Protein: phosphoinositide 5-phosphatase
Organism: Marmota monax
Amino acid sequence: MAALNLRKMPGKKREKLSVHVVTWNVASAAPPLDLSDLLQLNKQDMNLDIYIIGLQEMNSGIISRLSDTAFEDPWSSFFMDVLSPLNFIKISYVRMQGLLLLVFAKYQHLPYIQILSTKTTPTGFYGYWGNKGGVIICLKLYGYYVSIINCHLPPHVANNDQRLEHFDRILEMQNFEGHKIPNILDHE
């Protein structure tokens, strides 16, 4: 869990925004019956404001992708079913083959969140295949620029140089020309 210090909240002193970040290689599995521990739903003292959920290796077979195009993918539906009764709303998502990035926020924060951009950068098979790469959500949160990146990069120590090249490519592709958005490395 992370806490963001926000100084620009209208009508309030400096406050913290609690953010829970999940990254999970689901290895083509379907959503389990219960993720209360992963989402820290069993902790009574948790007062979370935002969930950021990044999944890798979701089932991206042809049948699955066609079904997900017509209907919402099972993971998004699962998280919505769990979080919406707790006053969370899915504010943005981006998917590229087996990568999924979801952002949920409590409804009272919605007036202070602006989705600026969602992008995908495939790096698999010479930069054309999306089994590897990154998905990004760029938003303005209480006046601060925030970029959230979910990556799936080549594994193993022997591929470290390739992994760094892929990550550099993902960052290079995140230009926001014409949108008056600072470079991704200049975001808060």
